[in-house]
Specification:
The chain has about 150 residues and is of the alpha+beta class. The protein has two domains: about 5-10 and about 90-150, ACT domain (Alpha-Beta Plaits, 2-Layer Sandwich), CATH 3.30.70; about 10-90, Alpha-Beta Plaits (2-Layer Sandwich). It has helices at about 25-35, 65-80, 105-115, 140-150, and strands at about 5-20, 45, 55-60, 85-95, 120-125, 130-135. The longest helix is centred in the middle third of the chain and has 14 residues, at about 65-80. The protein starts with 5 loop residues before the first strand and ends with a helix. The relative contact order is 0.23.
Length: about 150
Amino acid sequence: MSSSTVISTVNNITLVTLEGFPANVDSISRIFDAISNCGVNVDMISMAPTRGAYTGMSFTISDNDLIDILAFTSAMKKETNTKVVVSSVNHKISIYDPAMKNTPGVAAKVFRAISGTDADIRLITTSEVEISLLVTEADFDTVYKALTEAMQ
């Protein structure tokens, strides 16, 4: 990568996954409005391809907001058939480089670097200039080291 490549980390991240969630924008809007009303900030968001009228959607929040999100998801489970899976104490590792936008193979390099770690990658999000990975506490050091070495 270029000399402007930056690898950053954020710890204490909770992953919330909604399975069997209605695959329409109105439902998605209502969920994120309700989360916002709880005073919870959402970071990474990833939605699976729809299967008929339903989809899977995952998002991350700070572990500090875990109690608030559990109250919200408990109420949601009572009202819908959506299955909720919550996993806390994860870490986000982001690889950022403005040159990524016009450089083929960056994703290949990232995944090749961590392929030997046998890590549990919980979530992946990207933009034109960033790849973010959510990893477990147990895999953080190994994945971070592999990425740091590969991106030099």
